[in-house]
Predict the 3D structure of the following.
Amino acid sequence: MFETTKVIITENSRSLINKMREAPILYFIFSGTIIFSIFIFAYATFFFINIDINLNISLEDVFFTVFFMFLLKAVADFYNNFIKSSSLSYSLSTQVNQTKTIAEIFIAVFLIELIIWFSFSCLFLVALITFGVNVGYPLEYLYFTFGVIVAVCLGCTISINFFSPKRYRLLPTLILLGFYFQVGEPIYVIFTLPLAIIHVVWSIKNSMESHLFSKRKERVKDKSQIKIRNTIKAFFYRETTVLWRDKLLFSFVFTSVSTGLFSGYLFVYGDEILIPEAIRNQIGGLLPSMFLFLGIYVVIMYTGVFPALNLFLNEEKTMWILRHMPVKNDNIIFGKVSSLSLCFLTAIPFIPYITIFIGFDQIVFLVFFLIFSYIAGIIISLPLGVKYVGKKSDIMLLYSVSMILFVILGSVSVVANMIERVFAYPIILYIIILLSELLLLYVSIKISSQILSLKYKSAS
C-alpha cells in the first residue's frame, strides 16, 4: 500500500542528496539564504510590533501570501510528478488501479508540501522566540495549516485540469479562488476545505486523460534536410529550432511586454500602492529607480539567464554525441551562444512599453542597462551551465546565478546613476563599458571551453 507514494518521496530525497553532493557550495548558499531570510522576516516582525507605525499589514495578507505560495508549489510538484513524469508510464500500465496510483501521487505531493510548511514555520517560530515575540497563537497557526491543505488540494486540481482536454473542469477551482479574493477572510477558506477535497478527488478520478492529453514534443520535418556546412551556424540553427519548437520565444516576448507595462505602472503609482503613508517620506523616493531595476532584472533572468543555462543543462542525453563529433569546443560554445541573440530581441519590447509611463527621459540609461544586464547574465551563466552540463534545469543553480547577478547589477545601477548625474554625455562611458564587457564575454566563452575540455577529457 502507498508504494507509489514511497517511491516518489524516496526519489525526491535521493535526488536532493545527490544534487547536494554534486554542488555543495550552491546548496550551502541556498540553505544559508533561506535561514537568513526567515530570521530577517522574524526580526522585521519583532521590529514593527515594537514601533508605533501602522503598516496596514494584516494577518489576512500574510495568510493569503502563504496560501498562494503553496498553491503554486503544489501545481509545479504535481505537474513534475504526474503530467511531466516519463517514468510513470510503467506504473500506469500495471494491473494496479490507475486511480489508486494517481491518488498516491497526490498523497506524496501533499506530504511534501506539509513537510515544507512545518519545517519553515517551525524555524520561523523559533526565530520569533529568539527575539522575544509571543508565539502563543495555536488557533492562528491551525488556520494557516488548514489554508496550506486547501492550497495543495486546489493546486493539484489546477495541474490536473489545465492539461485536460476538458479545461472547463477548472471552473470550480476558479470560482473558489475568486470567492477567496472577494471575501478576503481566512475563515472562509477553512470552511471550503470539504469542497476542495471533493473537487480534488473528482479531478483525480478523471486525471488519466490529462496525462495522455499533455502535449509532447514533436519533430518538425520542414527544413530538416538542410545542410549547413558552417559549424557555428549549425549550432545556431539547432538551438533556435529548439526555441521555436518549445514556443519559448513567444513567452519571452509576453514577459518583456507585461513586465514593461507593470514596471512602468509601479514607477508612477507604486509608492502610493505598496508603501504605507507613515514611512513613504523616508523611502518613497527610492522606489521609481528600484522598479526600473527590478523590471529589467526580471526580464533578463527569464529571457537571458534561463536560456543561457539551459544551453548545456538540457544536453542530458545528447552530450556524448557532441563529444564524439570532430568539432572544437570553441565552435560548440560560440554556436550555442549566438542563438541567444534571438532571445535578446525578445527582451527589447520591455523598453518601448515602459516608456509609455516614464517617457523618454531615461531612454539612454534603459538601453545601456538592458544590454549590460543581458551580457552580464550570459557571462555568469555560461561557465556554470558548462560546469553542470546534463544536470537538467537545477533550480538551485538558477537561484545562485540570480543572487550573483542581482548583486552585480545593483552595484552597476548605482554607478550608472552617478554617471548620469556627473557627466553631460554619459553615452560615451556607456559605450566604453559595453565594449569592455564584450571582452569579458569572450573570456567567459574561452573559460567555458576549457571547463568543457576538462569535464570530458579524452582518454589517451
User: Anything to note?
Assistant: The radius of gyration is 25 Å. DSSP finds 21 helices and no strands in the chain. The first helix runs from residue 3 to 22.
